[in-house]
Amino acid sequence: MKVLRAKVLGFCMGVRRAVEMTEAELAGPEQVYTMGPLIHNPQTLAFLADRGVRILDEADLEKPGRDFRNGALIIRAHGISPGMEKKLLLRGARRRDGRKEPAFRIVDATCPRVKASQLAARSLAERGYLIFLAGERDHAEIQGIYGYVLTGKDGDSGGGKTRSGAVDKDSSKAGSETGKVPADKSFFPCIIVGSPEEAEAAARTVLNEAPENFFPKTALIGQTTISETEYSDIAAALAKSFPNLEVQRTICGATRDRQNALRELCSPADALIIAGGRNSANTRRLLSIARECGKPAWLAESAADLPVEAGAYSVVGLSAGASTPDSVIDEIEQALLYLNKGKEHA
Fold first, then answer.
1. What residues are annotated to the active site?
2. Residues 85 and 186 in one domain
């Protein structure tokens, strides 16, 4: 068997930066926490957990008696909403340049590409745009960007208030049901769509249920890991109803590079393995692209996930998601070669 690696695979800049920032904090005396999983890779999370990193969620912040003093809390690579950051600040956190004595420090490891999308969303909202978000509704990145839209709409860094003054019980989810428009028809803060079909349906709903004189400026922002084809198709679907739609170029270059490198790999390979976490959006998209090539393709979080039948192919292409460490890629490549040797001696 010959294993061909994609020209570009594995850790992207944003993931590597977040991991390195966490490792730097581990070198200090403080307890290290992350707000949600730092990245979407089980081996990396297990490695950090073994070194003492604890993952927190929103519920942990609400628990009485939780003591985070003298700790460093790292914001995950996918970012958080302004509302979540406000909760952290209210618990006594501060950034590195804060002046008051901290209960714990915030270390922002948000990917710079994601941060750019967050700021773009807030800026567009401040200028009165109706914003469509293309991506996975429950993904941390999309939920964080949605929070920035609310911030821009109401001018409140905590989020949660609509322009009409109503308070949402959960600003991270408000109005964000995929393809649905908020019940308050006088205010369309942001609509999340996951496909061209959902985009067309949401556009029709906006036009049918909006006030007669409601002609909003519209913009589209995509999850940084969405594929170019998906994003273009969603943009085209929305443009049917909103010809002046402003399409923001938010797809990460690292995502594009990995997807293009995989497509180049499809031709010479007889079968394809995508290394990475099952809960990683960009890894799942790589798997979808691999299957679109018409070749047998599998996702493997580790060598243990490799299917026996992969050993029957002469040339196997190997790609990996942007949150997959080099060690996992190497392990899977060696396991593939071993699998083939077993076939040869069977």
1. 141
2. no
The residue among 213 and 224 whose pLDDT is bigger is: 224
135 & 242 share domain: yes
The tens digit of pLDDT for each residue in 101-157 reads 556 788 999 999 999 999 999 999 999 899 999 999 999 999 999 999 988 765 544
Cα angle 277, 278, 281; round to 5 = 90
Q: Classify residue 29 as exposed, middle or buried by CB count within 10 Å of its CB (0-12, 13-18, 19+).
A: exposed
| Best CA proximity match to 184, nearest among 200, 201, 206 | 206
- Asked if residues 230 and 207 have their Cβ atoms less than 8 Å apart, the reply is no
pTM over 0.85? The answer is: no
Q: H/E/C letters for each residue in 118-158?
A: HHHHHHHHHCCEEEEEECCCCCHHHHHHHHHHHHHHHCCCC
Q: What CATH number is given to the structural domain containing 312?
A: 3.40.1010.20
Task: Give the chain's radius of gyration (CA, Å).
Answer: 22
Instruction: Say yes or no: 58 and 32 in one domain.
Output: yes
Q: Into how many domains does the chain fold?
A: 3
